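hey can u check if this looks right to u? its 85 residues, i copy pasted from the old doc so theres a chance i mangled smth
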Amino acid sequence: MASFFESIRVLVEDASGVLVDGGSGVEVRIRIEGESTDLFESPFTTDAAGIVESAELPCEPGTKVYFRIENHDGLAGSIALITTA
């Protein structure tokens, strides 16, 4: 059975330490809790407003999934969400 996540907004810290929209082209990787590899649907990419649109994932509703962005040094930020039906 498939499940869904709501759209998420990606924010980045600018040079003055203020959080601003990440803008377009930020790759967001997704992994289901307990899995050792990213989903094949991953990465998703942000639109011009820094949004990753909601989408269907190949897991049961109520599954915890991790969304992360990386930079050249590795992990830059992550969140965990619970999928819905």
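The radius of gyration is 13 Å.
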